[in-house]
Amino acid sequence: MIYLFTDYGYQGPYVGELKAVLKNHSCTEQLVIDLMHDAPNYNPGASAYLLAALSRRFQAGDACLAVVDPGVGSEHRRPVLIIADEVVYCGPDNGLFSLVVQQAKDVICYEIINGLDTILKSFHGRDLFAPALMKYLNQDIVNFKKFKYMSLVGINWPTDINEIIYFDGFGNAIIGRHGQTVEKDSYIILHGIEVKNAETFSAVSKHEPFWYTNSMGLVEIAVNQSSAMIQLSLKIGQVVTFSD
Predict the structure, then answer these.
(1) Which of 71, 65, 73, 78 has the alpha carbon at shortest distance from 37?
(2) Are 37 and 10 in contact (CB under 8 A)?
(3) How far is CA 80 from CA 90, 172, 199, 239, 241, in A?
């Protein structure tokens, strides 16, 4: 399977154009999955924690085209293809893959070095990353150059951060910290409010805030039948405090 992870959004032609390139370059009937197209806009740092959490369900032989690239077209941003535990990732070297690499046991990194002068600088997802990924999957690695993973942007970022990295469609706030690192009797302090842990939404009253470990294994702040983002005045990048 090929997973798509971007901040392109679900409106407009961009996702469709990515899929068209993947289809045109495919030698097999690869299944393309829209994993996420509302990753935090222009924020590869927050997106890195989401991608690492979601990638835990990937299997050997899968691939992921990931593009959150505010520096698109810049000469200072290296295009890369990374194999981490037999899963292939392709996209910009701007920190987006740093947490994926940190949690992997086996890593091989390639820089994409050919064709940069002949493509448009504004849509590298379509014109650079998608073709490069398919070339690799089709066993054509002529246009790639190996490098050591320790030179990746963000490779020394912390494994967990006490920071809001994403809001889902319900207004729940996902934090870049694994739930297993937080004691169940700990609470989160927000604007002077103590947000306690609960296992399920039904365990708290309507409009009551709580935190829990979500399906990705990350801490999530929610409000029963309401939006935590609105009710608690939260935003991406906001630092939260744990009682522990």
Answers:
(1) 65
(2) yes
(3) 6, 32, 40, 30, 35
Residues 126 and 92 in one domain: yes
Strands, E assignment, 87-237: 87-93, 107-112, 144-147, 164-167, 173-178, 188-190, 193-195, 209-213, 218-223
Percentage of residues of the chain with pLDDT beyond 90: 83
Q: Assess whether 147 and 194 both reside in one domain.
A: no
pLDDT digit string (tens) for 170-192?
A: 999 999 999 999 999 999 999 88
Q: Which of 151, 183, 202 is the last residue of a domain?
A: 151
Domain that holds residue 75: 2-151
Distance set, CA 119 to CA 18, 49, 158, 176 (Å): 15, 30, 35, 35
pLDDT digits (tens, 9 = 90+) for 13-24: 999 999 999 998
Do residues 54 and 130 both lie within one domain? yes
Tell me: the pLDDT tens digits for 55-91? 999 999 999 999 999 888 777 689 999 999 999 999 9
